[in-house]
Specification:
Length: 856
DNA sequence: TTTGGCTGCCC
DNA sequence: ATTCTGC
DNA sequence: GCAGAATGGGCAGCCAAA
């Protein structure tokens, strides 16, 4: 697995293979599993095999093949070897199994490296809500590679175009330099100690934290240092890691599956090991059939935990607490009786200790597209009740409100790392603490305290960088009422991708006090674990709440919804209430938490009822989303039309009995937009379909290497007989179509090495720098959701707007219009009309209207 | 001081 | 965002 | 039907070059 290839060419090919290749149509022995989603969770056919293979895997043997550094660090090469193996595999079950077994080895050999490894696998540097990002893109990497190898940036770029993978470019550059015995990876580096996972992750974190003057060059220096120390194929993985995409068919969901299974297996292994000491007889889990339910449960647990507590540091600390306690006990010579089993944590406790709390964003429910009203009706049988709801075109906003001790703001790194230990020492039932009676605290034994310390140390060593910027959930303050303290209600706002947007919405933050019941002066006593129904919900006082909503740019004068673009014009950093120029109306559509009670497992029907009960609508500022319940085709169709008339995108369809548990199915809602509808008939407003001409192209990357990955499209201006750029397009192509387009259009390439467009009849903004230019020959039918005034594109410039052209939003390829010549493409005038014809765009100035008429 | 490239993050 | 693809 | 990986327009913020 870790065979070091000596030849540089072999190294290059090695990573090259990690790009998924098209599967040969050759006979496969394994039949495709129709129900593969389930087998991912360990329920299908392949799952038994998976379990059996996990049992058969000799963790200890593989652990011995890895040599830790003298400091006890895990070599980076151990990870890259696994990534390499995964990259050569396309079966998801196998990918997950490889990673699972690697995690098991890490847990066995070097548990404190798990967090580093996890972060490197998911290509993150901190939890999403911590607001720490690498700040490295392709351009920076190209500069870094050029400076490391002494090559020109243009040469790196053209190699990138050719091989479609910057990681591969790094490897090639390295090997060519190696033969010259210079810069990177020369003889000198052979003496250096190997890179460790900790080295790489720490470097990533420090790159992310770099800011201010010369920060770019400092980042590049860091990258160069890593690349110089890299051996074999490591440079490729470093580069891919910095790109933020490993591109080996392994992303967050698979990593979570592997984490769950690995922890499950490790606990089983550990129980076997310790049973010899304690004399206990562990449950036999040595057959696939017996093991499988445990794997399924572990999978489910980790998925749920991560969706409610998206913080790997906290999860790992919690999972490892008993393990580390055991090791501490074992390493201490086992003179005292074992108490590590009392340490809370591991699979048994992780759900409880890492559960949903205000202050940490939950993964939001998402929706998937449907083709029309009929599809919705056929999808739901007659018993399934559902609601239709406007789909507002704004920004997803998850609003958290919770009580916090005054002045306790954010906890610092030490508290963050220690959080699991603190949580562990707290009573299991929140209720007993909140009730204010004598809280039976499990007074932590010596070993438990030691374990807590060990867990903290592990994080401090390996994960401090990540933890430091993490904001802890502060709602736990409510569990320990402090009579001397005063409390304030804190508001946090998170985006669809769990980014902290609080500072962007001072207006929404202030709004909270207007639509919510007043805050209690101290934490509520005796809050229930759950509500039997909405009537039990206290709407007199609101201590805490989490609301799911869409914030939409709103004109309070005309009381109309403004286009998405207006919302994006708002300032984003350090926004003061007075700075707000573009007003917002918050359309709330769900409630996930109220006064200490999680509502995720309540059906939508009840959540909606509670939401309506506790939130007071403030017209044009805070409203509940428009909802309609009916299963009549005409009703739904009318509601869809009405929604479009109200400047929204369409409808979201939600079943009334479903819960809010994104770990189970994050795409449980359906969306219905006009432009999804496959009409067949005329274009008549059912989404915008236009016929445009490809006039330039870009080389594809990754799985599109070797074909053009994106094209520049233009509309036709009959007056000037020129083509005006309207959008780029990069989706809607099957692989076959990508091939044929490349083949056909390569013939029409215009040789050109100058700047700007090669022909006067190609009107394209300076910002766009296509790889190649094309003579206008084809017409493509393209679908879009919307049109917008563009800073980059030129379509209908001087017609739709004096200075700006029109561009398409969400463009996708439909088909070639064989029947049309380029000069029969959609015209600039038509594009202008379509732009101004949109509901959300009001033409206020009648004079402009007249001018348009005169021009025609 | 202004401009423009790059990046991340909304959709 | 949308779309395609392998499993 | 999931998960992953291709790709879109366009905004503010940041930093470096002009």
């Amino acid at each position: 697995m870790m065979k070091a290839s000596s030849g540089s060419a072999a190294e290059a090919t090695s990573t090259g293979k990690a790009i998924k290749e098209k599967k040969q149509p050759a006979a496969t022995t394994e039949k495709p599993d129709a129900n593969n989603a389930d087998s991912m969770f360990g329920v299908g056919d392949g799952a038994l095999t998976m379990a059996a293979e996990l049992i058969a895997y000799d963790v200890d043997k593989h652990a011995q093949e890895i040599t830790l550094t003298p400091e006890g660090r895990l070599p980076y090469s151990a990870l890259t070897a696994t990534l390499e193996t995964i990259g050569n595999e396309s079966k998801r079950l196998l990918i997950v199994r490889y990673l699972t077994n690697f995690f098991r080895v890490v847990l066995h050999k070097c548990p404190h490296a798990l967090l580093d490894v996890l972060y490197l696998c998911v290509n993150k540097v901190a939890p999403d809500y911590a607001g720490l990002e690498l700040g490295i893109g392709d351009a920076t990497l190209i500069t870094a590679l050029a400076s490391t190898t002494g090559k020109k940036e243009s040469s790196i770029k053209s190699q990138y175009d050719e091989v479609g993978d910057l990681g591969l470019v790094a490897l090639k550059a390295k090997s060519s330099q190696k033969s010259l015995g210079s810069f990177f990876g020369g003889a000198a580096s052979a003496k250096k100690p190997p890179l460790t996972c900790h080295d790489i992750f720490s470097a990533f974190v420090s790159i992310a934290k770099e800011e201010g003057g010369n920060s770019k060059s400092r980042r590049i220096d860091s990258i160069r240092k890593m690349l110089v120390r890299a051996q074999n194929d490591e440079a490729g993985w470093i580069v891919r890691g910095l790109q933020g995409k490993l591109r080996i068919g392994l992303a967050e969901n698979s990593v979570l599956a592997a984490l769950g299974q690995a922890c499950c297996m490790h606990e089983i292994d550990m129980r076997c090991e310790t049973s010899k000491i304690t004399g206990e007889k562990p449950e036999k889990l040595d057959t696939a059939k017996v093991l499988m339910p445990h794997l399924v449960a572990a999978n489910e647990a980790i998925r749920t935990v991560y969706s409610e507590c998206p913080n790997y540091g906290k999860i790992v600390d919690t999972m490892l607490a008993p393990v580390l306690a055991y090791r501490a006990w074992r390493d201490a010579g086992a003179s005292e009786p074992p108490t590590w089993q009392e340490v809370p944590g591991g699979m048994a406790d992780v759900r409880r200790l890492c559960s949903f709390e205000p202050g940490v964003p939950v993964h939001p429910m998402l929706s998937k597209p449907t083709k029309g009203v009929q599809e919705i009706l056929t999808r739901f049988n007659a018993e399934t009740e559902f609601q239709c709801e406007y789909k507002y075109d704004g920004e997803r906003t998850q609003i958290h409100v919770f009580l916090q001790k005054r002045g306790s703001h954010k906890r610092k790194s030490d508290a963050s790392a220690a959080a699991p230990a603190v949580a562990a020492a707290a009573p299991a039932s929140k209720k007993s603490a909140a009730a204010g009676f004598f809280a039976p605290r499990a007074s932590p034994s010596k070993a438990a305290a030691a374990a807590a310390a060990a867990a903290t140390t592990a994080t401090a060593e390996t994960g401090a960088a990540a933890s430091e910027t993490e904001t802890e959930a502060c709602a736990s303050a409510a569990a320990e009422p402090d009579t001397s303290a005063t409390y304030e209600r804190v508001v946090k706002i998170y985006s669809r991708n769990s980014e902290d947007m609080t500072t962007r919405y001072p207006d929404v933050t202030v709004l909270v006090d207007q639509f919510l019941p007043p805050a209690p002066s101290a934490p509520l006593q005796g809050t229930p674990d759950s509500y039997a129904d909405a009537s039990e919900v206290d709407d007199a006082v609101c201590e805490s709440i989490v609301i799911d909503a869409e914030s939409v740019a709103f004109d309070r004068e005309t009381k109309t919804i403004l286009p998405f673009q207006n919302l994006m014009n708002r300032k984003k950093k350090d926004v003061k209430l007075e700075d707000v120029k573009v007003n917002v109306c918050v359309f709330a559509f769900d409630i996930l938490y109220y006064n200490g009670v999680p509502l995720l497992k309540k059906p939508l029907r009840e959540r909606r009822e509670i939401l309506a009960k506790v939130c007071k609508e403030i017209p044009n500022m805070f409203q509940l989303s428009s909802v309609m319940v009916s299963r009549e085709f005409d009703d739904i169709n009318n509601f869809l039309n009405e929604s479009v008339g109200a400047s929204t995108e369409g409808l979201i369809i939600k079943t009334l009995d479903d819960t809010y548990e994104p770990s189970r199915r994050s795409l449980n809602w359906l969306k219905l937009k006009k432009d999804y509808i496959e009409d067949g008939g005329g274009e008549g407003g059912l989404g915008d379909s236009v016929d445009l001409v490809p006039i330039a192209a870009w080389h594809g990357k990754g799985k599109r290497t070797g074909v053009y990955g994106a094209y520049l499209l233009a509309c036709y201006n009959p007056e000037t007989e020129s083509y005006e750029s309207c959008c780029k397009i990069g989706t809607g192509f099957s692989e076959e179509v990508l091939e044929s387009h490349t083949k056909a259009l390569q013939e029409t390439e215009i040789q050109w090495s100058g700047t700007g467009a090669p022909r006067s009849y190609l009107l394209v903004g300076d910002m766009l720098k296509p790889d190649i230019w094309l003579e206008p020959t084809q017409v493509w039918e393209v679908k879009a959701a919307d049109l917008s005034l563009s800073p980059t594109h030129k379509a209908a410039i001087g017609v739709a707007d004096e200075h700006r052209g029109v561009a398409l939003r969400f463009p996708r390829f439909l088909r070639i219009r064989e029947d049309k010549k380029p000069d029969e493409a959609t015209t600039n005038a038509q594009i202008s009309e379509m732009y101004w014809g949109q509901e959300s765009v009001q033409k206020k100035d009648v004079v402009v209207d007249d001018e348009d008429d005169m021009m025609l």
